[in-house]
Amino acid sequence: MRAASLVRRGGRLAVIATVAVLALVTTTIDVPSAHTEATVTPAVVPAFAGAELGHAATSVRQAPLICVDPGHSESAPGMIVTVTTVDAVGAARERRLREVDINLDVARDVVRRLRARFGNDAVVMTWGEADGRGRAWEALRGPTGDDKLDLMMRGAFCVREGAQSVVSVHTNWFGDAPNGIYVGYRDAEDRVLAEAIHSVLFDAMAVDPAGEPVAGYIDYGLDPGDWFLMLGFGSRDVPAVILEPVMMSNADEARRLLPVIAEAPDGRRAQIARVEAQAIGDWIAATLLRER
Ligand SMILES: [Zn+2]
User: Fold this and answer.
1) pLDDT digits (tens, 9 = 90+) for 160-190
2) Cα 56 to ligand 1 centre (Å)
């Protein structure tokens, strides 16, 4: 639910005002954490070096390489669309598809894949751990109902956890606009991560899981939208991006997105998760792990 920023850029005044509010929130948010910001340094990274060879991280708790944020929340689920499916005997059935459910399903699979590659401690989630562990900013503060405010609180949470990069997983909605990919970022530092993921994701998503080209799938590119100041401010010096690989407002795409990963391990959601995890992981290996 971020496509609106393609046509809605805030002015400088709005940005200054929002950053001021954000500063207020980040100073008052109370996230219990054993980690201080001092842990956010390349010096803690070498323990993950073996990850490239498939070894798990050492037993010493390290600052996470990445914080994965499933976009939206149960109480503020993002966009909801109704998808009509027809079963084998021709009976039509309407099903509700919520953005938060797609995001959480995909994000959990992204996290599972990244942990398999870099070790359990290498990844932290803003909420939605599969085992029910609550690291949620939401449980600490509660959603405000304001997407921008929520986003910056998630960024602040990631920083408090010591994460060295932040990726927010979303699914786009934009009325009758063509299906396509869009990656949001904040500034030049984020753009390297944004470009690394975008280039891989666009090529992959233009083809469906069965190998057929996705009709009308276009590239909305990279957008340094003011929206992403919200995520970026909280994460300050760490790269932060928002991924919007497909449009759930597109009827064909919505149908592809219906099956959950557990029931359709070769489906569209799994395809998105696999490609996002691969692109994020390759960027981690080429940057965070190489800078030691
Ligand atoms: Zn969204």
Assistant:
1) 888 999 999 999 999 999 999 999 887 777 8
2) 32
Ligand 1 centroid – CA 63 distance (Å): 27
In a domain, 226, yes or no: yes
Residue 113, in any domain of the structure: yes
Name the pTM for this structure: 0.77
Question: How many domains are there within the chain?
Answer: 1
Give me ligand 1 centre to Cα 79, in Å: 7
pLDDT-based confidence at 134, cuts 50/70/90? low
For residue 245, the CA-to-ligand 1 centroid distance in Å is: 11
pLDDT of residue 156: 80
Tokens, residue 241? 């991006």
**Does 38 fall in a domain?**
yes
Indicate if the pLDDT at residue 26 is higher than 50: no
Q: Which domain range does residue 102 map to? A: 3-286
What ranges make up the beta strands (E) of 186-281?
A: 218-223, 240-244
Q: How many angstroms is it from 242 CA to the middle of ligand 1?
A: 9
CATH number of the domain bearing residue 139: 3.40.630.40
CA of 51 to the centre of ligand 1 (A): 31
Q: If you average pLDDT over residues 211-221, what whole number do you get?
A: 96
Distance 94 CA to ligand 1 centre (A): 22
Does residue 291 lie in a domain region? no
Alpha carbon distance 85, 62 (integer Å): 46
- Length of the chain in residues, anyone? 292
6 Cα to the center of ligand 1, angstroms: 13
* CA 171 – ligand 1 centroid, Å: 6
Q: Could you give the C-alpha distances from 59 to 47, 55, 114, in angstroms and in order?
A: 9, 12, 17
What's the rounded Cα separation, in Å, for the pair 73 and 109?
17
